[in-house]
């Protein structure tokens, strides 16, 4: 390892860039696997003696997550700190709360890492001015626009003193937690994102987060933009996505940064997106059984999404929830099921007790969807009514659990709703290539498709 003196004099150093770790996401085994990915990634940073680590937002899934997870993460962060590697963190949209302190603040105050923020952040004098954090060993200078509600981020970006930031000498890193308009594919064009023109120019490295896919792009006049994607993932869409997961190792030589993706594999997956359209609930169940019989589930995380419109039957006949109990007994390392299917109305409603109530509900929804007058075909007309009813049915299935509290329950509901609303992964999973992201030295990196975001 180079001595700090040599590193400073030669302008050559290495740092790691993480984003969207979402510690505390999921429950049970998946929560542990997510934690494991983070711990392993930090172990690798120590083994490689990086000069520092950046965590570009969403380190935690909610502002006050499962403390058992926080404790393990804090112990590892302590190890990293004690090995002489500083960690610089900024808020993401998940670990930020407008009204409460976040676990990020607790860990920053305890000295485990440094929070990169605005001048006076969280206080009455909070402004758009960013506070420079200077890494002592490398003299790299870091600023960050923390993720908040996305429209708030944009507001901060627009008020930035770009000229002042650009005039600062040295190797500079610009951290953010937001989508960048120019890097988003067409189907994400509607999301709140920051325009490239709102970024200051001339930084050596732009450390992104928020979009749950790897993306790397060198921009003339700016520098190298990298979005590492999640270290593991935080919901069913992430788990169904076959892109490699991990973090980014950045080498800086003479003021020029180059990134290498570092995959972190903590478990093998069985990922299936099953179309049960046109099947009865009993036939769908048989199809699920066949799929499981063929997959070698032992030791693997099973992620199953079931979509399509069943021709007849009841949700109980399909009984996907039983798999949560059964598959671990067959050796599965983890189970996650996305129930994105529906049951054809004509078959479901007639003669069922409670049908008149369903009818009243449908009419009310139709009325409101009509008034909503969305131009998006998914939210208007028959499709809009169906979507609302599907969402209502799915969300009303899950009762609040005692454990976890309100924050986690809301987060679960949110995740499930997004899973229903997201485009069919059968399309996105195929569209996203299984080949690893481009590595350093591969020349002009092709743009990676950004399928979904969070
Ligand atoms: Mn995220």
Draw up the topology in text:
Blueprint: H1 4-10, E1 13-18, H2 28-47, E2 52-56, H3 67-82, E3 87-90, H4 103-109, E4 114-115, E5 133-134, E6 141-145, H5 150-158, H6 162-167, E7 172-176, E8 205-207, E9 215-219, E10 223-227, H7 236-240, E11 246-253, E12 256-263, E13 268-275, H8 281-294, E14 300-310, H9 315-318, H10 322-329, E15 334-343, H11 345-349, H12 355-372, H13 381-397, H14 405-421, H15 425-431
Parallel strand pairs: 1-2, 2-3, 3-4, 6-7, 7-8, 8-10, 13-14, 14-15
Antiparallel strand pairs: 1-11, 5-6, 9-10, 11-12
Bound molecules: manganese (II) ion.
For this structure, what is the CATH class of the largest domain?
Answer: Alpha Beta
Uncertain residue ranges: 1-9, 347-351, 399-404, 423-436, 438-454
Give the overall average pLDDT: 84
Q: Could you say what the CATH topology of the largest domain is called?
A: Purple Acid Phosphatase, chain A, domain 2
Strand order of the largest sheet: 4-3-2-1-11-12
Order of helices and strands: HEHEHEHEEEHHEEEEHEEEHEHHEHHHHH
Find the count of extended strands (DSSP E, 2+ residues).
Answer: 15
Helix content: 25-40%
Outline: globular
First-residue to last-residue Cα separation: 37 Å
Radius of gyration: 23 Å
Number of helices: 15
SSE-based structural type: alpha/beta
CATH architecture verdict of the largest domain: 4-Layer Sandwich
Strand content: 15-25%
Key descriptive features of the protein:
454 residues; Purple Acid Phosphatase, chain A, domain 2; 2 domains; six-stranded mixed beta sheet; 15 strands; 35% helix; disordered C terminus; binds manganese (II) ion
């Amino acid at each position: 390892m180079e001595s700090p003196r040599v590193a400073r004099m030669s302008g050559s150093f290495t740092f790691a860039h993480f984003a969207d770790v979402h510690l505390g996401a999921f429950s049970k085994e998946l929560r542990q696997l997510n934690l494991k990915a983070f711990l392993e990634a930090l172990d690798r940073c120590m083994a490689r003696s990086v000069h520092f680590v950046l965590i570009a937002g969403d380190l935690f899934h909610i502002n006050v997550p499962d403390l058992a997870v926080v404790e393990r993460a804090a112990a590892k962060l302590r190890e990293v700190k004690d090995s002489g590697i500083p960690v610089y963190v900024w808020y993401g949209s998940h670990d930020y709360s407008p009204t409460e302190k976040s676990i990020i603040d607790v860990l920053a105050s305890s000295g485990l890492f440094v929070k990169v923020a605005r001048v006076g952040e969280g206080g009455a004098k909070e402004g758009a001015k960013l506070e420079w954090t200077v890494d002592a060993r490398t003299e790299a200078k870091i600023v960050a626009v923390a993720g908040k509600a996305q429209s708030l981020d944009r507001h901060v970006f627009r008020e930035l003193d770009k000229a002042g930031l650009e005039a600062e000498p040295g190797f500079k890193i610009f951290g953010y937690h937001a989508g960048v308009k120019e890097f988003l594919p067409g189907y994400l064009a509607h999301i709140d994102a920051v325009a490239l023109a709102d970024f200051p120019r001339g930084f050596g490295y732009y450390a992104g987060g928020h979009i749950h896919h790897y993306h790397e792009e060198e921009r003339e006049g700016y520098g190298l933009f990298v979005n590492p994607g999640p270290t593991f993932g935080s919901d069913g869409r992430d788990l169904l996505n076959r892109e490699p997961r991990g973090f980014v190792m950045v080498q800086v030589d003479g003021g020029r940064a180059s990134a290498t993706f570092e995959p972190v594999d903590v478990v093998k997956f069985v990922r299936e997106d099953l179309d049960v359209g046109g099947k009865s609930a009993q036939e769908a169940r048989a199809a699920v059984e066949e799929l499981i019989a063929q997959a070698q589930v032992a030791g693997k995380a099973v992620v199953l999404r079931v979509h399509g419109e069943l021709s007849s039957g009841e949700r109980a006949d399909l009984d996907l929830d039983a798999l949560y109990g059964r598959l671990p007994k067959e050796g599965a390392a983890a189970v996650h099921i996305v129930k994105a299917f529906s049951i054809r109305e004509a078959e479901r409603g007639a003669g069922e007790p409670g049908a008149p109530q369903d009818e009243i509900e449908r009419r009310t929804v139709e009325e409101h969807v009509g008034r909503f007058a969305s131009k998006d075909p998914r939210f208007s007309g028959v499709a809009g009514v169906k979507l609302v009813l599907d969402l209502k049915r799915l969300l009303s299935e899950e009762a609040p659990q005692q454990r976890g509290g309100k924050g986690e329950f809301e987060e679960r509901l949110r995740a499930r709703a997004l899973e229903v609303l997201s485009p069919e992964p059968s399309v996105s999973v195929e569209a996203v290539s299984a080949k690893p992201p481009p590595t350093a030295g591969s020349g002009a990196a092709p743009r990676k498709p950004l399928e979904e975001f969070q």
